[in-house]
Amino acid sequence: MARNILVIDGHPDPNGERYCHALAQAYVEGARAGGHTANLITLAECDVAFLRSQGEWREAEPGPDIRKAQEAIGAADHLVIVYPLWLGSMPALVKAFFEQAFRPGFAVTRGEMSLNPGLLGGRSARVVVTMGMPALVYRWFFFAHSLKSLERNILKFAGLGPIRETLIGGVESIGDGKRKAWLETLRRFGREGR
Questions:
Q1: Taking the mean position of all CA atoms in its chain, how far away is CA 131?
Q2: Residue 7, beta-bridge partner list
Q3: Is this structure's pTM higher than 0.85?
Q4: Predicted pLDDT of residue 110
């Protein structure tokens, strides 16, 4: 079954040489080859302001790039979020993007929070994280704490599920063969729409 897929490339550096950019593009290529509709948002090219108060989060109008992103998220069946692990977490730009895009009235209910606040139900997600350390160290020693926080406190809170993970460790040292293999894995996930 054809899906409408949105890939969010969260690497803050616009340099096209970044591996996250290649991974995001590989997923988009695979999805389109598989008959899916696939769109790409590259956060490094977007104007994403930092929120500075709860009132701003609840009441301020998001900028044009965020409104376009909300439209794309609203139309998608499946989100793919790609970013590098920086200081043990997602880059500040990715967090700022979610704070801007997942506002009350769009991603969560307005007013008093309920036990089921999410307005983005019916959408699945895949989170792809690259990192310098081995993925097993991140998962087993650090308990993938920042990834779990993104899944539970942002994506599931907004109603998304199921959420799958792809952790790519040792990106500075894995060599061209493994890098190409990961690109093909992302293309396959794209073709399969998962």
A1: 15
A2: 40, 80
A3: yes
A4: 82
